[in-house]
Fold:
Amino acid sequence: MAANAENRRTETGIPRVAMVQGAIPEHMLAAVYDPMINLILQGSKCMTVGDRTLHYDPATYFVMSIELPAVGVVNPAATGEPYLAISLTLDPTVLTTLLNDLPPPSGRCEQEAGFSVAAVTPALMDAWVRMLRLMGDPVAIAALAPAYEREILYHVLQGPHGWMLREIAAPDTAMARVSRAIQWIRRDFAEPIRVESLAERAAMSVSAFHRHFKAVTNLSPLQYQKRVRLLQARTLMVASASSVTSAAFEVGYESATQFSRDYARVFGLPPARDTARILATTRG
Structure:
């Protein structure tokens, strides 16, 4: 099953299902992640969003219901097997269709964070196993994968993260409005943003918008934009050989000095040294 998985996102041939295996360089785990369900089969992982770090392993699964800038660290199993994980990218259409076939929930959870970890149940694992067996039977993927995807989502909806998927699928919830604001920030990340304008577009008061945004993402709107800018600048310096100053200005900074200060605070090294370290690791 994992024979073709690499130490980067590896498509399985099943729509929205990907695998990753082995030691993954830290810089490849720092990214803006798409909404997903992530299940570890071997090893463990730490995922940090803002100042909150979650740890999970084969006994647990991770759900991220909105796009979030995060950093991660993966570890092999204690017995030596390489890290191995699978993910299902959340499709709003599939989720909405499934919810339309289910009765409304009896109550509403007051939690708001857009990411969390929960224990894997036998039923959820069974659905995942049947989904992954399709990798050995490509002809059956078109017929069976949609049903298995719905089953995986169904079991997550019945668990402690069900409220999270329901919130993101409904158009007028606070989480859905925050999600739309995230789209605006990501689209225009190099431009100055005004929280007042984002709040108005989200049809919320400034105080309510700021409170919900921080609760969902563990970041303020400006912190979110800064993380997106820094991640993009890192990509420019590593993949395109942009200079520190050029990358800083391209992602919207007006001061290279401020950029270097923010960069070191997030990634632990000044941009030039961090870029050199990443390139040396890649070449090695």
Observations:
- The CA atoms of residues 31 and 231 lie 6 Å apart.
